[in-house]
Amino acid sequence: MKSISTPIRFALIGYGRVAPTHTDAIGELREDGRLVAVCDLNPEALAKGISGTQAKGYTDLGDMLTDPNIDVVSICTPSGLHAEHGKQAARAGKHVLVEKPMDVSLDAAQSLIDCCKENGVELFCVFQNRLNTTLQLVKSAIDAGRFGKIYAVNSTVIWKRTQDYYDSADWRGTQAMDGGAFLNQGVHFVDAMRFLCGEVTEVKSMLGTLARDIESEDTGSALFRFENGTLGNIFVTMLGQKDQEGSITLLGEKGTVRIGGTALNQIEQWDFQEPNEEQDALAQNADYHTQSLYGFGHRIYYRQVTDYLQGNGPHPTGGADGIKSLGLVRRIYGDHFA
To answer: How far is CA 232 from CA 24, 53, 199, 225, 235, in A?
Structure first.
């Protein structure tokens, strides 16, 4: 890939709930990145997207993609449109950055990977929790062998999504455009479990729509058997009284760690048989406060994308990882939403 000179010029499709996190992350790039265009069908959303910027506003994606002054298109539309919008950008010769999940279906996700390859553009898939200081530190401990054999991993996600949240847009909670608790919210934690423990050979699940009037699940549990023998389980619900918990606990032969808070932002337990002075000191200061469940990983991710496109760093998480995490969620769904 030919490197791009600065600033990297970003365009954004869909100015909804997560989009301000993207525009803030682009702003943090300073002279290395710039938001040059925003596209949204809703005039009010579009006005918010370009407010305080020099970005052009578009209500037609095709018009925006004809602009030669766009390097990367960031896709923040409903999940069921991710692949289609990504393919349109790829065919226009733009690099593609897509929010989680890549799409709601594996076939669509694979078609996006294929289209990007055919058109010689890069595909970047956001899983910002991998970049948390807490999760990065745990991954370092795993790589250093401090856990020995990891026996089990557990994730618990108790967040609040009211009926008003689902009613705020007609695509929310639908199987075609959104998915439910696992595909929309829990996918972050499914991906984090893969990131820490590897690939999964066996999945068993139980899902339910217990309180919300939606097509997909608002609550569910799944059991995993990883290739390395680790057993895992994950519980996800959107029926909490508040955004209460987003945690992962690893139980190993020589150590136990629990990352908690609302979004993997606190190290609540850090116990190992053998000390590691550097890592143990970092664990004392790895916590961070965030008022957003998105955390600060998008800023780091956009920096990684920019560095890569400038020829100064490795490729961030892309299609290969994105489709594997989507595939694991689809295995959790199994025949529940066939």
So the answer is: 35, 45, 11, 6, 10
CA dihedral 112, 175, 316, 190 (to 10 degrees): -140
| 162: pLDDT strictly greater than 80 | yes
Contact, 50 vs 24, CB < 8 A?
no
Confidence tier at 198 by pLDDT (50, 70, 90):
very high
Token pair recorded at residue 161 = 């999504």
Q: What is the value of pTM for the model shown?
A: 0.95
C-alpha distances in Å from residue 224, one per residue of 28, 85, 155, 247, 288? 38, 32, 11, 16, 29
Dist. CA 34–CA 39, nearest whole Å: 15
The half-sphere exposure of 101 on its side-chain side, counting CA atoms within 13 A, is 32
Say if strands 123-125 and 95-98 run parallel, antiparallel, or are unpaired. Answer: parallel
Dihedral over alpha carbons 157, 292, 261, 265 (to 10 degrees): 110
> In the structure, how many helices (H) and strands (E) does the chain have?
11, 13
| Alpha carbons 177 and 1: distance in angstroms, whole number | 33
Q: Where are the alpha helices (DSSP H) in the chain?
A: 19-27, 43-50, 61-65, 82-91, 106-118, 133-143, 163-167, 187-197, 277-283, 297-309, 319-333
- Bridge partners of 243, per DSSP, are none
What one-character-per-residue DSSP string does 253-295 give? Answer: SSEEEEEETTTT-EEEEEEESS--HHHHHHHTT-----SSTTT
Top CATH class, 8-128+298-315: alpha beta
90-118 pLDDT, tens per residue? 999 999 999 999 999 999 999 999 999 99
> What CA–CA distance (Å, rounded) separates 209 from 66?
43
Residues in CB range of 255: below 8 A, 6 or more apart: 141, 146, 147, 148, 271, 272, 273
Q: Where do the domains of the chain lie?
A: 8-128+298-315, 133-267
Cα 204 to Cα 135, 151, 221, 226, distances in angstroms: 25, 18, 9, 12
CA–CA separation, 185 and 165 (whole Å): 13
Say which CATH class 133-267 falls into: alpha beta
